[in-house]
C-alpha cells in the first residue's frame, strides 16, 4: 500500500509481512520512504520495522509456549528483516 505523507510531501510505502515459523504465525509492518537520488532517480529507503505480534496456528504444550515463541520469533524476525532488506536492494538496483 502506497500513501503520501502530507506533512513532508514524501511518498511512503507500508508493507505487511506474515511469516510462519514452527507453530506460530508472526506479523510485521515495514515502512519505506521514497528518496530522490542525485541523478533524478528514486529509490525506497526503509524507515521503520515494527513487530505486530504472533498467533498460535498449531498445538503446542503450554509449558513450552514461551520458549517456542522466543526460538521461532527470533528466526521469523531475522527472516522478515532479510526480506525487507532484499526488497530495498532490488529497488536500489533498479533505480541505478
Number of distinct beta strands:
4
Q: What's the number of structural domains?
A: 1
How does the overall form come out from the CA principal axes? elongated
For the report, how would you describe the main beta sheet? 4 strands, antiparallel
What share of the residues does DSSP label as strand, in percent?
over 45%
Radius of gyration: 17 Å
Looking across the biggest beta sheet, what order are the strands in? Answer: 1-2-3-4
SSE pattern, N- to C-terminal: EEEEH
Q: What structural category arises from helix and sheet content?
A: alpha+beta
- Number of continuous helical runs: 1
Cα end-to-end separation: 23 Å
Share in helix: 25-40%
**Unreliable stretches, pLDDT < 50, 5 or more residues?**
none
Kindly state the mean pLDDT as a whole number? 81
Task: Describe this protein's structure.
This protein is an alpha+beta fold and 96 residues long. It has one domain. Helix content is 32%, strand content 46%. The protein has a 4-stranded antiparallel sheet with strand order 1-2-3-4, covered by helices on one side. The protein is elongated. It starts with a strand and ends with a helix. The model has no long low-confidence stretch (mean pLDDT 81).
Give the structure's gist in a few sentences.
By secondary structure, the chain is an alpha+beta fold. It contains one helix and four strands; from the N terminus they run ββββα. The two termini are 23 Å apart.
Topology diagram in text:
Layout: E1 2-5, E2 10-21, E3 24-36, E4 42-56, H1 65-95
Antiparallel strand pairs: 1-2, 2-3, 3-4
Amino acid at each position: 500500500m502506497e500513501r503520501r505523507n502530507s506533512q513532508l510531501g514524501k511518498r511512503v510505502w507500508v508493507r505487511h509481512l506474515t511469516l510462519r515459523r514452527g507453530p506460530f504465525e508472526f506479523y510485521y509492518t515495514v515502512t519505506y520512504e521514497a528518496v530522490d537520488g542525485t541523478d533524478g532517480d528514486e529509490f525506497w529507503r526503509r524507515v521503520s520495522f515494527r513487530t505486530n505480534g504472533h498467533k498460535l496456528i498449531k498445538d503446542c504444550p503450554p509449558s513450552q509456549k514461551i520458549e517456542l515463541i522466543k526460538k521461532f520469533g527470533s528466526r521469523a524476525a531475522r527472516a522478515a528483516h532479510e526480506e525487507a532488506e532484499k526488497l530495498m536492494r532490488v529497488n536500489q538496483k533498479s533505480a541505478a
